[in-house]
Amino acid sequence: MAEPLPRPELAAPAPGAVIPGTPGRPRHVAIIMDGNGRWATNRGWPRLVGHRKGAERVKQIVSACPDMGVDWLTLYAFSTENWKRTTEEVLGLMGIFARYIEREAGRMSAEGVRMRFIGEREKLNPKLRGLMDKIEITTSGNTRLNLTVGINYGGRDEIVRAAVRMAEKVRRGELGQDQCDSAAFAGCLDTAGHPDPDLVIRTSGETRVSNFLPWQAAYAEYEFTPTLWPDFSPAHLAEILDRFGNRDRRFGGV
Ligand code: IPE
Ligand code: IPE
Ligand code: MG
């Protein structure tokens, strides 16, 4: 087993909950939620029906995570490449994100969920951006689960923006050139302050990473499951988490 990573402050776990960070359990799980379109198409329904069903799954998985010992959950909701889809699908997805934030705000606070977003926000519509900014503030004191959602997120885009931020810090004299190491760079990423994911799960049977967390997941374990995201239940997640304990993470050691 690797040395446990330094842990951020966490609220006392709920009675009966698995203590977060239990050995053999991933504390940070990241999920590429794929397969919504196929789930709907298989039933002869519009793709957006699959996205709506997918959002229902997000609620269940978010609620289930703390009791499974997961205290960081990062979800890939919309990539920098997903703008290639039809206007109808893109606008439909943006509407689903906005409604999710509006309707789930109360439950997230009740369940101690801190919600944050990664990705480039300038391109998103102002209403959605406003909701994102607001929920980040209203849930900032919650500590039971750190939920981070990638919207207009692309790993390469994030790395380029981080490089610009780091160069700007050097230019302003806040960071010496000799201090430009990986820790300083990680602090310029959208995920600054997040631990690296221990486990990345992709649903729908595709075995690629599609520009998701390339820097942060450098040493993550991967699980690919054929289950389409709208069918992915907390029981599926529990099964994957159980298997994680059998992995030998060596981080380059022996
Ligand atoms: C994942 O499902 C959700 C997003 C990428 C927004 P897809 O929409 O990619 O579903 P498939 O892969 O076409 O089935
Ligand atoms: C990855 O899924 C992005 C999200 C899940 C948000 P895609 O469906 O966009 O990825 P590709 O096109 O199969 O690589
Ligand atoms: Mg897909």
Automatic annotation (TrEMBL):
Primary enzyme class: transferase
Pfam families, alphabetized: Prenyltransf (PF01255)
Any one GO MF annotation of this record: transferase activity
EC nos: 2.5.1.-
Classification via InterPro entries: UPP_synth-like (IPR001441), UPP_synth-like_CS (IPR018520), UPP_synth-like_sf (IPR036424)
Superkingdom: Bacteria
Entry's cofactor comment: Binds 2 magnesium ions per subunit.
Positions that bind Mg(2+): D34, E221
Binding of substrate, residues: 35-39, 47, 51, 79-81, 83, 85, 202, 208-210
Residues spanning the signal sequence: none
Keyword Transferase appears in the UniProt entry: yes
Residue ranges of the region described as Disordered: 1-22
Active-site residues, as the UniProt record annotates them: D34, N82
Entry keywords, A to Z: Magnesium, Metal-binding, Transferase
Biased composition (Low complexity): 1-17
Cofactor(s) the record lists: Mg(2+)
Function: Catalyzes the condensation of isopentenyl diphosphate (IPP) with allylic pyrophosphates generating different type of terpenoids.
Record-stated family: Belongs to the UPP synthase family.
Subunit: Homodimer.
Protein name per Swiss-Prot or TrEMBL: Isoprenyl transferase
Species whose genome carries this gene: Paracoccus pacificus
Origin organism lineage: Bacteria, Pseudomonadati, Pseudomonadota, Alphaproteobacteria, Rhodobacterales
